[in-house]
Write a structure and sequence with these properties.
This protein has a single domain (6-223), classed as 3-Layer(aba) Sandwich (Rossmann fold), CATH 3.40.50.360. It is 44% helix and 17% strand. The chain has helices spanning 18-31, 49-52, 56-68, 74-79, 96-103, 106-110, 132-145, 155-158, 185-205, 213-223; strands at residues 6-12, 36-42, 82-90, 93-94, 118-125, 149-150, 172-175. Strands 1, 2, 3, 4, 5, 6 and 7 form a 7-stranded mixed β-sheet that branches. The structure holds flavin mononucleotide. Flavin mononucleotide binds at residues 14-19, 88-92, 124-127, 130-131, 176, 178.
Length: 225
């Protein structure tokens, strides 16, 4: 029997480009799962050019990112079987641009369009212990409100060594020193693990088999919220 195609959307906002680089690694992980079709899209900027400041190098980088990654729409989110959400850490939380995007989901929320879709979160911060876990956990809150099912990275999979310093149980983390630090193999590995787990969970949750009591239970919760 031919395997059903599973749509994985990797969605990110970036101001400097680091979160886009990390999103590519999440996408690579998801692509490793048979039947997964991955698209990586960006959440648009909402701040004015004045507020962002004059930095020609950053502006050129962002032009390239805009060319490479299409802008995400609400429809993309609704059509996806699983979604990874990526954000820079901004003031110890997730970026307001991501919140602005999520706030446009009110109708989809009322119509339960995102219920039972698996969701994973990833973030990029400047330095260690400066809000990465808080950013991931705060981003999971609206996703739970939308009825999405969080997918993390449990310790036996995540932790190969004592000095394993990428990621967390809550999602993938990359410490970028604001563009001065390159991603190492561990950073990439943890991002790819998260992408693979998201695509695997999306495959399980999209099986739609009539015989499976678990699938029927998920559908029942939709009919009787
Ligand atoms: C408004 C603002 C607030 C920030 N707050 C934090 C913070 O609380 N913790 C942190 O580690 N980095 C913080 N940073 C740094 C960014 O998270 C970091 O540079 C990251 O690499 C940016 O990702 P990007 O290149 O995808 O935009 C902040 C940056 C900005 C612009």
């Amino acid at each position: 029997m031919e395997k059903k195609k599973i749509k994985i959307l990797v969605l990110f906002y970036t101001r400097g480009g680091c979160t886009a680089d990390f999103a590519r690694e999440i996408g690579k992980g998801a692509e490793a799962i048979a039947g997964a079709e991955v698209s990586i899209k960006r959440i648009p900027e909402i701040l004015s050019r004045e507020a962002l400041g004059h930095d020609p190098e950053r502006a050129a980088r962002m032009d390239a990112i805009e060319k490479e990654f299409p802008e995400a729409t609400i429809e993309d989110l609704i059509e996806a079987d699983g979604v990874a959400f990526g954000t820079p850490v901004h003031f110890g939380s997730f970026a307001s641009q991501v919140k602005h995007f999520l706030d446009q989901l009110t109708l989809a929320w009322h119509q339960q369009k995102l219920v039972n879709k698996p969701a994973a979160v990833f973030c990029v911060g400047h330095g260690l212990h400066s809000g990465e876990e808080a950013a991931l956990l705060s981003l999971i809150i609206p996703l739970l409100n939308l009825g999405m099912i969080p997918v993390g990275i449990p310790y036996p999979i995540q932790s190969d060594a004592h000095d394993f310093d990428a990621g967390s149980p809550y999602g993938a983390i990359f410490i970028s020193a604001s563009g001065k630090r390159e991603m190492n193999d561990m950073d990439k590995k943890v991002a790819q693990i998260l992408g693979r787990r998201l695509a695997s969970m999306a495959t399980l949750l999209s099986c739609g088999c009539d015989a499976c009591g678990v699938c029927q239970e998920l559908t029942r919760t939709l009919k009787h919220p």
